[in-house]
């Protein structure tokens, strides 16, 4: 077993398994440095023929409470979304089986990262949600991925209201595979890893490619369109700036509809 640590990640190699643990206390907020470290880790893992599975995890308090709000201001949002979506695209395109093990807060970009993994196991009392709409924004990855994963109506409700749901509910709507009590979650993940260890890495990679054959085309085009709307239309609105500034200033936003 080889364990390497960066500023915001802990990466563990135990072939054929690699684990990427988000480590940015207190809530594992995903800032641009974490995105860059994650991209480097994913590139290294993808190049290793002895790794067949990647497990993403946080800690008891949070898988991740989302992308750094400060990076959503118009002056930084281009760099932030480019870096974050590069990570998301790498996960979606990976030949490795990806697993998210979710405890605590799993919100915004953290929920997007978990959602695009192949298999998702969550604590029953984990808190999931896509609250970007409350900041005058929207989640580009979720806007593309969720309709395919859970259906248009359920996706619309989560994205347009920003409401939070439990681990049990995300299983019920098809966003996660299984939920369990917090203390049982590791056992469920280990059970799946034992099954995957017995299988051909080549067969897993090709099966994954076949499963996502159609949705991958949809996702690439859809995310490009979601980015275009975000950059060319949303961030020029007064409400987008107001939502972010109100959050940072810890006050209610004053929407103008402009």
Report on the architecture of this protein:
With about 260 residues, this protein is of the alpha/beta class. It contains 10 helices and 11 strands. The strands form 2 sheets. It has a 7-stranded mixed β-sheet, sandwiched between helices. It has a 4-stranded mixed β-sheet with strand order 5-7-9-10. A hairpin with a 2-residue loop joins β2 (about 10-15) and β3. The model has no long low-confidence stretch (mean pLDDT about 95).
Supply the key terms.
258 residues, alpha/beta, seven-stranded mixed beta sheet, four-stranded mixed beta sheet, 10 helices
Could you give a short description of this structure?
The chain has 258 residues and is of the alpha/beta class. The protein has 10 helices and 11 strands. Helices cover 49% and strands 18% of the residues.
Question: Helical region count?
Answer: 10
Low-confidence stretches: none
Outline type? globular
Main sheet, how many strands, which sense, barrel?
7 strands, mixed
List the helices and strands and how they pair.
Blueprint: E1 2-5, E2 9-14, E3 17-22, H1 32-46, E4 53-57, E5 62-64, H2 74-93, E6 97-102, E7 105-107, H3 109-115, E8 119-123, E9 127-129, H4 140-150, H5 152-161, E10 164-166, H6 167-172, E11 178-180, H7 182-197, H8 201-211, H9 213-232, H10 238-248
Parallel strand pairs: 3-4, 4-6, 5-7, 6-8, 7-9, 8-11
Antiparallel strand pairs: 1-2, 2-3, 9-10
Helix pairs in contact: 1-2, 2-9, 3-4, 4-5, 4-9
């Amino acid at each position: 077993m080889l364990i390497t640590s960066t500023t915001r990640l802990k990466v563990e190699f135990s072939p054929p398994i690699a684990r990427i643990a988000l480590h940015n206390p207190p809530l594992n907020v995903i800032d641009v440095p974490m995105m860059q470290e994650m991209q480097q880790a994913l590139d290294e893992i993808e190049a290793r023929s002895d790794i067949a599975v990647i497990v993403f995890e946080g800690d008891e308090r949070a898988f991740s409470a989302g992308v750094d709000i400060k990076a959503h201001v118009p002056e930084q949002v281009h760099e932030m979304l480019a870096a974050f979506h590069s990570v998301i695209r790498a996960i979606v395109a990976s030949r490795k089986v990806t697993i998210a093990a979710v405890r605590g807060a799993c919100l915004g970009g953290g929920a997007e990262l978990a959602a695009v993994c192949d298999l998702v196991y969550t604590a029953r009392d984990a808190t999931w949600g896509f609250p970007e709409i409350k900041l005058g924004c929207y989640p580009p990855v979720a806007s593309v991925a969720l309709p395919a994963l859970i259906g248009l109506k359920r996706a619309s409700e989560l994205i347009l209201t920003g409401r939070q749901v439990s681990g049990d509910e995300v299983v019920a709507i098809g966003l996660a595979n299984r939920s369990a009590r917090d203390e049982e979650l590791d056992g469920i993940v280990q059970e799946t890893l034992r099954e995957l260890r017995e299988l051909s890495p080549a067969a897993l990679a090709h099966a994954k490619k076949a499963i996502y054959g159609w949705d991958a085309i949809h996702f690439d085009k859809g995310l490009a369109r979601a980015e275009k709307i975000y950059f060319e239309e949303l961030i020029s609105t007064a409400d987008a700036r107001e939502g972010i500034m109100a959050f940072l200033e810890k006050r209610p936003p004053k929407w103008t509809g402009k």
